[in-house]
Specification:
Length: 450
């Protein structure tokens, strides 16, 4: 591999401008910054998937935090430049091949990338790129270019969400708790920046008049799988019960997507935002269907969102589908507010998007779609199992709260819903029918005969 050429490319991107105190105040890009980004992308595309020397070297040089993130934050006037920086991030954060070498080292590099992105304004700026596509989606005027951009952004979010594995060496080094804390912090960041609302909106449009997002059903499934990974359905179903234990001073924040970043970190973030050349604030707006079937108008305002604000209701390579088997088992979020956020998110997912998404995937599995691998079918069953368990425990909790007559009331709760059309399975009807049963039996027989 041409490491010397790679060195020239990375060194030729530009440099960070700092004030006398060492604080970032801008980024001075070179005249060939865009060309070098495109060359870097070509290098990463041809990287050896087994040893990934280019990936490792770029991480060792800290190119992401030194160049890519500053380019995204400070060069927003150059949209093409930012887009190419995002494309490079997508390739750098791709999941690791299970047969790859030095997996533990690659895991460590990926956690480093996740940390750099989490402690920057990258997600806010990336969301701002979707203002026009979301507006076109709202007016049913989505173009193929709009779809490709949304797909690129979703792929980046999936890649970073999928960084959850902890190697044995890291676990032995007692760094597992730090990684789990980073996992929760990034998840909270996605709530704060309206990313989770975006995911729900796209999911609800999988079966819409525009067939573009129908092609992303597997990508969306992977995202939901990563969000639920490690969480206990029973614990999640009980998350809302913790709200009654919170003091009066925090009750007003129960309807918000508040940040739990430490005060000093928040101050540093606000300081960086003020120094950006242009606001990274996402000013787009879109409509999302809520739990009761009504439509909620969501106006994106992630970077400067008040913590008390109510937030209700070209083909991108997805990377290797084989994942590393996690050796840490289920490690649910320890923070109550994260559990509450995910609880509400799953509830919104079940308000209509779940049936739309899972039905489309069932159809593709039955047709043996060429894009589906056995690992994808496993993910499909895992998400289905998780959601079914969540719904079951939610029913038990409802039964305890309402008394022994809950069975009829629970069914009647969905009897008049336009989403569920009186189906007693309601929110999970797409994976609680005869077709699903036959699919499970078929896959089970194939597994036994293999």
């Amino acid at each position: 591999m041409d490491m010397e050429g790679l060195s020239v490319i990375c060194a030729g991107l530009g440099y960070v401008d700092e004030d006398d105190s060492g604080n970032r105040i801008g980024y001075a890009k070179t005249d060939y910054c865009l060309d070098n980004l495109k060359d870097l992308l070509r290098f990463l595309r041809h990287d050896d998937p087994q040893s990934r020397p280019m990936f490792k070297q770029v991480c060792k040089w800290n190119t992401v935090s030194k160049d890519l993130i500053p380019i995204i934050e400070y060069c927003q006037d150059d949209r093409n430049l930012v887009l190419n920086a995002v494309k490079v991030l997508v390739f750098l954060t791709m999941p690791i091949e299970a047969s790859s070498n030095d997996i533990s080292q690659q895991i460590e590099h990926l956690w480093g990338l996740k940390s750099s992105i989490t402690h920057s304004n990258t997600i806010a700026v990336v969301m701002s790129l979707l203002e026009s596509p979301l507006e076109n989606l709202e007016h049913k005027a989505l173009t193929e270019d709009d779809w490709k951009l949304v797909q690129l952004v979703l792929t980046l979010f999936w890649n970073i969400l999928a960084i959850q594995d902890i190697s044995l060496q890291q676990k032995a080094g007692e760094s597992a708790s730090q990684f789990l804390s980073l996992r929760d912090r990034f998840l909270e960041l996605l709530f704060h920046e309206n990313v989770m609302d975006l995911i729900l909106v796209i999911t609800q449009n999988v079966g819409g008049s525009s067939q573009y997002f129908r092609q992303d059903n597997l990508l969306l499934l992977e995202i939901f799988h990563c969000i639920c990974m490690g969480q206990e359905p029973e614990l999640l179903a009980k998350a809302h019960l913790n709200r009654s234990k919170v003091g009066r001073d925090t009750k007003t924040s129960l309807n918000s997507l508040k940040s739990i970043l430490e005060e000093e970190e928040e101050k540093r973030k606000l300081s960086r935002i003020r120094k950006l050349n242009r606001s990274s604030q996402f000013r787009g707006a879109f409509t999302r269907v809520t739990m009761d079937g009504s439509k909620a108008f969501v106006k994106g305002n992630p970077t400067f969102t008040s913590h008390d604000k109510l937030l209700k209701p070209h083909q991108v390579q997805r990377g290797p589908l084989k994942k590393i088997v996690s050796d840490h088992g289920n490690l649910p979020s320890a923070k109550d507010n994260i559990l509450e956020f995910v609880h509400d998110f799953v509830n919104q997912f079940l308000s209509g998007g779940y049936n739309v998404l899972m039905q489309s995937i069932c159809e593709d599995i039955e047709k043996e779609h060429h894009a589906f691998q056995n690992s994808d079918v496993v993910v499909f069953f895992q998400v289905s199992q998780f959601v079914t368990s969540f719904q079951y425990h939610k029913f038990l909790i409802s039964k305890l709260n309402r008394g022994s007559d809950t069975s009829d009331s629970f069914v009647n709760e969905y009897a008049d819903s336009t989403f569920f059309k009186g189906d007693m399975c309601g929110p999970i009807a797409a994976t609680m029918n005869a077709a699903m049963f036959l699919l499970v039996v078929l896959k089970w027989r194939k597994h036994l005969m293999a």
